[in-house]
TrEMBL record:
Pathway it works in: Carbohydrate biosynthesis; gluconeogenesis
Reaction(s) the record says it catalyses: oxaloacetate + GTP = phosphoenolpyruvate + GDP + CO2
Record-linked PROSITE patterns: PEPCK_GTP
Cofactors that this protein relies on: Mn(2+)
Binding site for GTP: A279, C280, G281, K282, T283, N284, R395, R426, F521, G522, E523, N524
Domain Phosphoenolpyruvate carboxykinase C-terminal P-loop: 252-620
Alphabetized SUPFAM superfamilies for the sequence: PEP carboxykinase N-terminal domain, PEP carboxykinase-like
Annotated family: Belongs to the phosphoenolpyruvate carboxykinase [GTP] family.
UniProt-annotated binding residues for Mn(2+): K236, H256, D303
Protein name: Phosphoenolpyruvate carboxykinase [GTP]
Subcellular location: Cytoplasm
């Protein structure tokens, strides 16, 4: 028999700049993936109940004890589908230079052909859900809408928590709003190509995964994974990778940042946005309970912020999400009592351990583990097992409205005015506890030079130091060099008095014997108090024309708290810890500058000259110190 050529179906996609017809797109995707049925989702409580019941029946969700953990469920993923897969995340812009050296670029036509291949018949035997959602309060001028097609009921229910799903979004699309089309399949059809039925499993997925983005046509295509950032396409794929491109083109910023409202003992209010890499403390900081008397921190967002210049020259931010997909391990009464309370009911847990009485447990929830557990893989576990009971990247999915520290302004459609922007990483050495940038350009340099020790939130060797500019390395939909240029442009357009101050922080510096030098968590309020004090100092200075750095002293890497300016009342640090927390070793920093130069070099002539100038100035200050 002669070989017949296989007809590759055309992957339905959007023409650049052309409005996409929702119904035509859904029909075209259905033609490709061949589902048994199509269900349009309305985000209602009834719909959620039906999906949850079905997942309980199929074993995807395990109901937890209704008294100990009401309304809550445990999902156990496939053991090979536990985190974002950065090596399989692709930016498919027409030119490789637009994706930049730190993204995996694929030629759009090549990727479309590959995706069409794997997606052909991918939903056979399954239901195809159509999920209209809004990132940001529906109708907010800072919000954007999308539609996710998926064959995973776990994804539908999770999107219902993490975004605003409903017919109000469809109405906006019918009225002409442009939407981001996002297709997701777990890649496990229940009918094989020869027509035989395949048994379903609790967590279907495929060993080969694709998380593909077409920034020019604002499309997302995801295949093979059911997990978090790979599958809940409103989150990293839309709200960061696609939105960062929208922001570049339209003059706003989509960032991997938490957002909080801070109130001082005098009742003054500030808004702070902070970018830390994955699993480096955003959720903890967003729910911080200050140890400093009289201070309040309220939560607006814990992972993503969209920031847009307002007409008054200030930067306004929203949290585009409606829920938290947070790291469970390390979340305990000592570290994050707010989260522990938030998780008392109506939560979907993924890859935590199960107690014998039908509740959940993870490392760090209590100081001592229970005597017996079922671990995240479903195996019997005791403290002697010698392996973690919960996966290090085990997560909770919970509505933001359920957070005890949620700010009443968290859904303000106008957003909140940002006073300070903070960048931080997990650095055992070199980087001081807190540094104020000398000006906006220096602040962009602080963001561009964030580095952090690898965590379990993505595949890779935990603990290895990697560069993670703006905590956006895996999340920027275009080249990081242009992202920095965009930040410089946005800052230049803000009014002097309204422009946020920029800071760098590091909660993770260690002593020679490997102990954390700073207690962190609620004690981070001390650093926050200094930060907003600097905002006050800068504001009153811009009125009076006097020095703007009261409470600060200049060092080679930036401004640090002047002696006594960091409120340490009631805190006992080990001898010498404070000095070590702020120590700047010129030799180690000179080596750091060499690494930065090497890192910057890969961006060639797209690197903004302002950043080269910042590196030169830093070297000069180090030499003079
Ligand atoms: P993603 O959701 O992955 O984007 O991460 P996130 O930045 O929200 O991470 P999260 O707040 O969940 O960070 C969790 C890890 O950071 C845990 O290991 C915490 O114990 C640790 N952590 C958070 N804050 C502090 C701190 O102030 N000091 C120390 N030493 N560890 C901290
Ligand atoms: C992160 O990895 O930064 C997360 C979790 O917030 S995920 O949704 O999987 O991206
Ligand atoms: Mn994140």
């Amino acid at each position: 028999m002669t070989a017949t050529s296989v007809r590759l179906p055309h992957l339905p996609h959007v023409a650049p700049g052309q409005p996409l017809d929702l119904h035509a797109w859904v029909a075209a995707v259905a033609d490709l993936v061949e589902p048994d049925e199509i269900v349009w989702c309305d985000g209602s409580a009834d719909e959620r109940r039906g999906l949850v019941d079905r997942m309980v029946a199929t074993g995807t969700l395990l109901p937890l004890d209704p008294v100990l953990r009401p309304g809550s469920y445990l999902a156990r993923s496939d053991p090979d589908d536990v985190a974002r897969v950065e090596s399989r995340t692709f930016i498919c812009s027409s030119s490789a230079e637009d994706a930049g050296p730190t993204n995996n670029w694929r030629e759009p036509a090549v990727m479309r052909a590959e995706l069409a291949g794997v997606l052909t018949g991918a939903m056979r035997g399954r239901t195809m859900y159509v999920v209209p959602f809004s990132m940001g309060p529906v109708g907010s001028p800072l919000a954007q809408v999308g539609v996710q097609i998926t064959d995973s009921p776990y994804v539908v229910v999770s999107m219902g928590v993490m975004t605003r799903v409903g017919t109000a979004v469809l109405d906006r699309i019918e009225a002409g709003a442009r939407f981001v089309p996002a297709v997701h399949s777990v890649g496990a059809p229940l009918v094989s190509s020869d027509g035989t039925r395949v048994a379903d499993v609790p967590w279907p997925c495929h060993p080969t995964k694709y998380i593909a983005h077409f920034p020019e046509t604002r499309e997302i295509w995801s295949f093979g994974s059911g997990y978090g950032g790979n599958a809940l396409l409103g989150k990293k794929c839309f709200a960061l990778r696609i939105a960062s491109v929208m922001g570049r083109d339209e003059g706003w910023l989509a960032e991997h940042m938490l957002l909080v409202r801070v109130t001082s003992p005098e009742g003054r209010r500030y808004h702070v946005a902070a970018a830390f890499p994955s699993a480096c403390g955003k959720t903890n900081f967003a729910m911080l309970q200050p140890t400093l008397p009289g201070w309040t921190v309220e939560t607006i967002g814990d992972d993503i912020a969209w920031l847009r210049p307002g007409e008054d020259g200030r930067l306004y931010a929203i949290n585009p999400e409606a829920g938290f997909f947070g790291v469970a391990p390390g979340t305990g009464v000592e570290t994050n009592p707010t989260a522990v309370e938030m998780l008392s009911h109506d939560v979907i847990f993924t890859n935590v351990a199960l107690t014998d009485d039908g509740d959940v447990w993870w490392e760090g929830l209590t100081p001592e583990p229970p005597a017996h557990l079922t671990d995240w893989t479903g195996r019997s576990w005791t403290p002697a097992s010698g392996r973690p009971a919960a996966h290090p990247n085990a997560r909770f999915t919970v509505a933001a409205a359920q957070c005890p520290s949620i700010a009443d302004s968290w859904e303000d459609p106008a957003g909140v005015p940002v006073d300070a922007i903070v960048f931080g990483g997990r650095r055992a050495t070199n980087v001081p506890l807190v540094t104020r940038a000398l000006d906006w350009e220096h602040g962009v340099f602080l963001g561009a030079t964030v580095a952090s020790e690898q965590t379990a939130a993505a595949e890779g060797v935990v603990g290895e130091l990697r560069r993670d500019p703006f905590a956006m390395l895996p999340f920027c939909g275009y080249t990081m060099a242009d992202h920095w240029a965009h930040w410089l442009r946005v800052g230049a357009g803000l009014s002097g008095a309204g422009r946020p101050l920029v800071f760098g922080v590091n909660w993770f510096r260690k002593s020679a014997s490997g102990e954390f030098l700073w207690p962190g968590f609620g004690e981070n309020a001390r650093v926050l108090a200094w930060i907003v004090g600097q905002v006050d100092a800068a504001r009153s200075a811009s009125g009076s024309g006097s020095g703007s750095d009261e409470g600060a002293v200049a060092g080679p890497v930036g401004l640090h708290p002047a002696p006594g300016a960091l409120d340490l009342d009631g805190l006992t640090l080990p001898d010498g810890a404070l000095e070590e927390l702020f120590a700047v070793d010129p030799a180690a920093w000179s080596a750091e500058c060499d690494l930065t130069e090497e890192f910057f070099a890969q961006f060639g002539d797209r690197l903004p000259p302002e950043l080269t100038a910042q590196l030169t100035s830093l070297r000069a200050r180090l030499t003079a110190s």
